[in-house]
Structure formats: C-alpha cells, structure tokens
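Marked as duplicate of an earlier ticket. Keeping the data here for the record.
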Amino acid sequence: MRIFLFDMDGVLLESIGYHRALQETVRYMAKALGFGNLTLSPDDIAIFEAGGINKEWDEAAICTALLLEAAWKIDPKREFPKSGLKPNSPLLKQQSSPDFNALARQLSSSDLLHLHPLERAIYRFTESDHLSKTQYHILHNLINGARDPQRSITHRIFQELVLGSTEYSHAYDLPSILGCDSFLLKHDISNLSKTESAHLREWIVLPNHAAAVITSRPSCAPAGIFATPEAELGAELVGLKDIPIVGWGGITWLAQQRQADQQKYVKPSPVHALAAMRVALGDKEETALMEAANLAEAGQSEPAWQRLDGSQVSVFEDTPAGIISLQSAREILEKLGIQIRPSYFGIAKKAVKRDALLASSAEVFPTLAQALARSI
C-alpha cells in the first residue's frame, strides 16, 4: 500500500489569504495602539512557522502582546484597544518599532521548543518583574484567549477576514465589524496546476494507493462541534475536494471526547498521523481519531492497524510538525510489529524553513510538483 499525507497550507496551496489576514489583523492592532501602519513581514511569519508557531490566531495575539509591551514602555497608561479598529489614543513617539522578527526567533529557541506556542509566549511576556499587576493580567488573558472568539478581539478580526463577513456572522453568530470578503477566496493560490492536480487524482485512485490531508486548518467536524470549513475550501481550490481530511475540527472532537486539550492530538502528536493514515484507508474520521488516540496513549491495538503493515507512507510538509508526527507514529506501530516505510518530503523555498526541514530528516524540494515527481 502507498499512502500520501499532505499538509495543506504551504504544501497543497499557498495560504496567502491566512498570511494577509494575519498581517491585516496585526495592522489593525498596531493602529489601535498608536503604532500607525505597522505589521508583520513575510520573513517574520516564516520564522514563526519554522519554530512551530503556525496558527495565525496565536501569532496575532503574540504580536499584539509585543505591541502592548512596547506601547507601555513609552506610555504606561496606554489602554488595550476594545474594538481593534481605530486608534484610541495619539500616535506613539517611539525610538524604534517593535521587532516581530526578533520575537519569532526568541520564541523558537531550542530551550522553548518543548512548550506549546502559547506557553512559550506566556513565559516570554509574563515571567517578568517590569509589568504591573494590571499589565500582567492583560497580557496573560490576551495570550491565553488567543483561540477563543468570545474573549479575543484578535481572533474575531482574523476570522472575519478569513471567512468574509457573511460567513463569519453565520458561523459565529456575531455581528460583522469589518464588512469584508473572504481573504481565502481572494488570495489563496493552488500549488498544483490543473494538469498536476488531475495527475495526482489519477494516482490516488489506482489500486493500493490512498491519500489524506493532515492539517491544523479549521475543518468540518462530527456533529456537535463548532467548525468552519476552511480545510474543505482549500481542498476544493486545489482540485482535491474528495480527499479525506483530518483537520482541526476532528481534533477538537477528539479532545472533547477525551476531555483533553486539542494540542495533545494535533501534529507533532503521533495521533494526527495515525488518524490520517486510517482515514486514507477509508475509515470514518471519528473511528480513526479515537483508535489513534487509544493506540498512542494506552497501547490499545485494533486488528485494523494491521492493514498498514508494509505500507509506504509519504508525508509532504512545509514545517517539521507533520514529519515528527509520522516519525512518532512509525515508532508506535513498530511496537506492534507493524512496519511502515516512511518518506519525508519537505516543501520550502525560504532558507529558514529548509534548514528546519532538513534537521527533521526531510528531503526538501522548492515545490510540491517537484516532490511529487520524485515520489510518484
């Protein structure tokens, strides 16, 4: 059996929409705090992602924390913006702009990589004696609430930009504050041409071939779970709308079933890769996720895992997370006597990403098409 596991953003497509929405969110917050037209550069974002900080919700809150910290050094009474849309006080007269690049490198240092991204930020911003009690609580709540639309203005601004105001209001039952079209539909670009996409679909339907998407992007979820179909929109854009997806929606469902945090199961957790292999073989997402967690956490093995024995499994990633997930999954399966033959394909053009992928034992290509030419 040959199985392909594809990351979405940065691999199947260029997630320009997400990056533009992140940059616009930070720009809104910078204006609201008095920094004017300031935001992240593409290089800043690449360094965050190379260090495993690849959820734009997190990056938006973390960068806003840096803006707040910098603002307080100039004006300790500067208030946190309530709407995030308009400056609530005059422009700051700062010596230099907050350095997002330096922050990304600091949070990606080797001594912090064992922590989740938001835990790294909490350590960076709140383990300090220069903050007042009020400032400490503001930063702590800003970072901890990064993924909660009810608590986080950065989350709400980002999601409205991503989905567009109509879909945002429908999905979240919240009023629009931006009046915008979807940045995903406006800006995302497929990394496969129509011909290349058709060739991949022809490969997938051959006997003993299978594929799945393994992504942290929000996705449809089992009943009872709030979800937005961002992964499904991406798959349709690339011409792979029928490929099974294990995304944030399914991970959230699993976390609720097991009363755990989602980060416990999303890549680089082996659960993500284990579940992706099972949905590629045709299992329902719920079954694949639950059995993957049972295996990874308690060593509970079902006969269905034997179907993977002898399989060649290739993962296509632009950051180490999915590679580490498959590496860990292979080790778990080996303990059951199940042998898979993994291949790790990195997709990156920027040096900082290439270096991170090479350090994770990936063979790196500048484009997905070149990686597929090597593997098909």
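See parent ticket for discussion. Residues 24 and 338 are 47 Å apart (CA to CA).
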